[in-house]
Amino acid sequence: MSKAEVRRVVDDTLDEMGLRECAERPIGTWHLRGISGGEKKRLCIALEILTRPRLLFLDEP
Q1: 49 vs 55: CA distance, rounded Å
Q2: Could you tell me the pTM of the whole model?
Q3: Taking Cα atoms as reference points, which of 5, 32, 35 lies closest to residue 17?
Q4: What distances in angstroms separate CA 21 from CA 15, 37, 51, one per listed residue?
Q5: DSSP state of 22
Q6: How many domains does the chain have?
Q7: Is residue 26 part of a domain?
Q8: Using one digit for the tens of pLDDT, what is the confidence trace for 10-40?
Q9: 27: helix, strand or coil
Q10: Range of the structural domain that residue 36 is part of
Q11: What angle do CA 37, 3, 34 make, to 5 degrees?
Q12: In the prediction, which pLDDT does 60 show?
């Protein structure tokens, strides 16, 4: 994939997962507030989606 294609896929995934508004925010540490717990969960799913798996198992609704 070209850099432009990668950027397009990442941008599309950010939009699909509702993560656009927190894309530039740090994830956070124990002393620095970052993204919320729900955003962290969606980020983990988005990272897996970026690999374009044929099948993705999720254990929560």
Answers
A1: 10
A2: 0.75
A3: 35
A4: 9, 15, 22
A5: G
A6: 1
A7: yes
A8: 999 999 999 999 888 888 888 888 898 889 9
A9: coil
A10: 3-49
A11: 20
A12: 74
Query: Would you say 27 and 40 are in contact if contact means Cβ atoms under 8 Å apart?
Result: yes
Which two three-digit tokens encode residue 38? Answer: 């729900």
Pair of tokens at residue 2 = 């070209």
Instruction: Determine the residue type at 53.
Output: P
In angstroms, the CA 13 to CA 7 distance is: 10
pLDDT in the model for residue 61 = 64
Q: Which two tokens stand for residue 8?
A: 């397009």
The reply to whether 11 falls in a domain is yes
Biggest alpha carbon–alpha carbon distance for the chain: 38
pLDDT bracket for residue 47 (50, 70, 90): very high
Measured between alpha carbons, how far is 4 from 54 in angstroms, rounded to an integer?
23
**Banded model confidence at residue 5, pLDDT cuts 50, 70, 90:** very high
